[in-house]
Design a protein that fits this description.
- There is one protein chain.
- The protein is an alpha+beta fold.
- 29% of the residues lie in helices and 30% in strands.
- The termini are far apart.
- The protein binds biotin.
- Biotin binds at residues 82-84, 106, 109-112, 115, 117, 119, 126-128, 170, 180-182, 198-200.
């Protein structure tokens, strides 16, 4: 752990109270102040963190999380094409699972099915995580489902919003999309070499910064105030760490929480997958995370991706 991370961990742990820094740590304070941290120093009481900057910093995020896997290394780029691409470039060389790459903005952020994902500078969390799950490729949907549960739970815990999941992996508030997840797998038909979990959360976007054509929202719009991005990043990474473990070890527990959060379950829906369209009743998730759709003729169809419209 770097000295800066150690200092920030003390500050965050003290939640605004004074802390004592070692003689070795104190010379690092001007560096933090230059980055926008406001620190009050007192001759007897020590130092306390008064304000944090609205910017994501790897050492700061690292100081805020104590996770098992997710966020083992955290990098932040000022701008990149897509954080999924950065992780892809770094994944080959034996990089440890859990690497999380954030960007303050993306020039070519992408969503599912090749859609553009708008990623305006410092307005949200745009990040990707490298995973090496030892499961069959067909079961990778479990990880995406678990991630959607984690993001919804983190948003509720952090900002009190009623975040729900629209299958397969949109996180919505009041029926409007607030976050999206893009999982990309690399490997063979029978083996996952690695997967990249890309997550976008619209935090401080104003309405005009959100995509047109779909009902979208942000935490700013939902809560009426700008939100602390680094603080939410830590809550999301921690929730993802728990959810990832459950996805691999006890997926039934994930299904249970997902069922409470999912707005699609129990509804009559139409799913489009390229040229194919199927209608049916969204009945349940199976053990791999696929949606089981009961058609009018009683046939059960397993669906692993697609766009849905809720019919009634
Ligand atoms: C979707 O809802 O279609 C998925 C959106 C995923 C967006 C995130 S932002 C970070 C990561 N980098 C990307 O280019 N996409 C994902």
């Amino acid at each position: 752990m770097s000295e800066v991370t150690a200092i920030l961990r003390k500050f965050h742990g003290a939640a605004g109270e004074f802390v004592r820094l070692t003689a070795g740590e104190q010379p690092k304070l001007p560096e933090l102040e230059k980055l926008g941290f406001v620190i009050e120093s007192h001759p007897h009481l020590g130092h306390r963190l008064v304000k944090t900057p609205d910017r994501l910093l790897g050492e700061d995020l690292q100081a805020r999380v104590q996770t098992r896997v997710i966020g083992s290394t955290i990098l932040v780029f000022e701008e990149t094409s897509s954080t999924n691409d950065v992780v892809l470039r770094m994944a080959g060389s034996g990089t440890q699972e859990g690497l999380a790459v954030f960007a303050e903005s993306q020039t070519r952020g992408r969503g599912r099915r090749g859609r553009v994902w708008m990623s305006p500078k410092r307005k949200g969390l745009w990040f990707s995580v490298l995973l090496r799950p030892r499961i069959a490729p067909v079961a990778l949907t479990r990880v995406t489902v678990a991630a959607s549960v984690a993001v919804a739970r983190a948003l509720h815990q952090f900002a009190g919003v009623n975040a729900r999941i629209k299958w397969p992996n949109d996180v919505t508030v009041g029926g409007r999309k607030l976050a999206g997840i893009l999982t990309e797998m690399h490997g063979e038909a029978d083996e996952i070499k690695f997967a990249i979990l890309g997550i976008g959360i619209d935090m401080n976007c104003r309405q005009e910064e959100l995509p047109e054509g779909i009902p979208a929202t942000s935490l700013l719009i939902e809560t009426g105030e700008a939100q602390d991005r680094a603080a939410l990043a830590a809550v999301v990474l921690t929730a993802l760490d728990d959810a990832y473990r459950l996805a691999l070890e006890n997926f039934d527990a994930v299904i249970e929480e997902w069922a409470q959060l999912c707005t699609t379950l129990g509804k009559q829906i139409a799913v489009t997958m390229g040229p194919r369209r199927i209608e049916g009743h969204a009945q349940a998730l199976d053990g791999d995370g696929a949606l089981l759709l009961r058609q009018d003729n009683g046939r059960i169809e397993r669906i692993v991706g697609g766009d849905i419209v809720v019919e009634k």
